[in-house]
């Protein structure tokens, strides 16, 4: 694990452990690194949180001071920056966002010229520079970089999404929860262009309300809206719109696992699942694997993080993969999770099958799952503690082939995640609490969050 960059960029509380100076120096390094043999161009997007504007200015100052040009897409989604970085042949892209986190946090997501997450060797070089006293050369005269408006890139991305739809959405009542984030204008534009009767909630960002009781991390608001307003389907995005969760017409949640089931099956039935494999993470529900086995669909499990899902897909030619949290990657169309694209593909399955979403998921049975986040002093110490490892083994043996236990580190916080799936909720609670109790007895725990 890198010192500053986790599985999804450099993330922290704005001007506490992710400061303007960090952003300026990241910009200085990227402008110098990519501009060593040509006039580099770097594209930047941001979400709606208040500090995103501050970080955009700091990055732009650093990049242009090193002699590279900056193209600003302004408020946009992470997948749109990925798309434009690749199609418009930028040296790299930066998305300013802390995704689903509260507004106080922010992050720098670095994207290479292929529209993929930045290579580790570049991340390592940035981190070495951040911790050094190295002085990079400043550009002078007409070598100083420019800041260019690039809102046109966002509009081209919207056009691209519209071309991917295979059906008209006429007569479909669709609800969108935009989390007061990056999707607040884009999602509505796409669905209205495709003919849907579109109803949008949480699309009035003010800099501090991003993800606040809304979006994919607070799906209950969309569930209520769908039922009360007789929607055919609802989609909820996170702050930077690289995630999507769905709600069926009855108000039931269809999470990332449910989406993988519906669209994996849809691809299988149309002979489009080329490798007959769906890529999941170790956090996917036990019920998803049982459902795939019944359909004759193979699956693989990666570490948590859409980065690892994508790497496996690319290495093995798999076309679909994702996370329970709603990061879904459609390898034919994008190199990263894309919430709006996910909604479009789910609409394709609904309209092609001429069935409501509740019917498409009726054979997918979710195993009860309990996940608790345990804040600890040191993740590695707690994870490798002898007593903790012993109780994890005991729980695994007790569950046998009727469930599973997973203890893993967060990629962005000093947190261990304790998850159990079992035939009953009571069994899940009992076993999760048994593990946490041992961690408490060993003096490893500072806080437990549901």
What brief labels describe this structure?
alpha/beta; 450 residues; 22% strand; single chain; five-stranded mixed β-sheet
| SS elements, strand count | 20
Largest sheet: 7 strands, mixed
Helix content: 25-40%
Strand order of the largest sheet: 1-2-6-5-3-4-7
Query: What spatial form do the alpha-carbon principal axes imply?
Result: globular
* Class by SSE composition: alpha/beta
Proportion of beta-strand residues: 15-25%
Beginning-to-end CA distance, first to last residue = 25 Å
Can you characterise this structure?
This protein is an alpha/beta fold. It contains 15 helices and 20 strands. It has helices spanning 20-34, 50-65, 78-87, 120-130, 151-164, 183-193, 220-228, 256-269, 286-295, 306-316, 339-353, 357-360, 379-383, 386-399, 425-441, and strands at 5-6, 9-13, 41-46, 69-75, 92-96, 105-112, 147-149, 173-177, 197-201, 233-237, 244-247, 253-254, 277-281, 298-302, 320-322, 328-330, 369-376, 404-409, 415-421, 445-449. Strands 1-2-6-5-3-4-7 form a 7-stranded mixed β-sheet, with helices on both faces. Strands 9-8-10-11-12 form a 5-stranded mixed β-sheet, with helices on both faces. β15 and β16 (328-330) form a beta hairpin. α1 (20-34) runs parallel beside α2 (50-65), α8 runs parallel beside α9 (286-295) and α14 (386-399) runs antiparallel to α15. The longest helix has 17 residues, at 425-441. The radius of gyration is 22 Å and the shape is globular. It starts with a strand and ends with a strand. The relative contact order is 0.10.
